[in-house]
């Protein structure tokens, strides 16, 4: 996961196209985040579903990451 992110960032720093690498990193990271958030809810049971809990916020953030938009930095620099 870290390698995908670093590769996309390195390509961007080099001024090379990185949209595909950034999309692959975003997809994989969002899938891992959702699995981790789901596991946290399972471990904590009902407490994980309470709106004010950190776990509930992690779940919402992970879902937002999954359905979020494209990378914000353009590869056409």
The level-1 CATH class: Mainly Alpha
In one word, what is the shape?
Answer: elongated
- Secondary-structure element series: HHH
Helix content: 55-70%
Structurally, the number of domains stands at: 1
Classify the fold: give the CATH topology.
Butyryl-CoA Dehydrogenase, subunit A, domain 3
Radius of gyration: 15 Å
End-to-end CA span: 25 Å
The number of distinct β-strands equals: 0
Number of helices: 3
CATH superfamily membership: Butyryl-CoA Dehydrogenase, subunit A, domain 3
Report on the biggest sheet: none
Which stretches are low in confidence, meaning pLDDT under 50 for 5 or more residues running? 70-77
- Structural class, from helix and strand content? mainly alpha
CATH second-level architecture: Up-down Bundle
Strand content: under 5%
Averaged pLDDT: 82
GO molecular function, one term: acyl-CoA dehydrogenase activity
Pfam family, one: Acyl-CoA_dh_1
Protein name: Acyl-CoA dehydrogenase-related protein
Keywords: Flavoprotein
Secondary-structure blueprint:
Layout: H1 2-13, H2 19-44, H3 54-67
Helix pairs in contact: 1-2, 2-3
Features:
3 helices; 77 residues; elongated; flavoprotein; acyl-CoA dehydrogenase activity; single chain; Butyryl-CoA Dehydrogenase, subunit A, domain 3; AcylCo_DH/oxidase_C; 68% helix; disordered C terminus; AcylCo_DH-like_C; mainly alpha
Folded structure, characterized:
This protein is mainly α. It has one domain: Butyryl-CoA Dehydrogenase, subunit A, domain 3, CATH 1.20.140. It contains three helices and no strands. It has helices at residues 2-13, 19-44, 54-67. α1 (2-13) runs antiparallel to α2 (19-44) and α2 (19-44) runs antiparallel to α3 (54-67). The model is unreliable at 70-77 (pLDDT under 50).
């Amino acid at each position: 996961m870290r390698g995908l992110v670093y590769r996309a960032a390195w390509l961007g720093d080099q001024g090379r196209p990185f949209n595909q690498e950034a999309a692959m990193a975003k997809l994989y990271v969002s899938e891992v985040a959702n699995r981790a958030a789901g596991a946290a809810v399972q471990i904590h049971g009902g407490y994980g579903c309470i709106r004010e809990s950190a776990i509930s916020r992690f779940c919402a953030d992970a879902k937002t990451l999954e359905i979020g938009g494209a990378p914000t930095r353009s590869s056409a620099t």
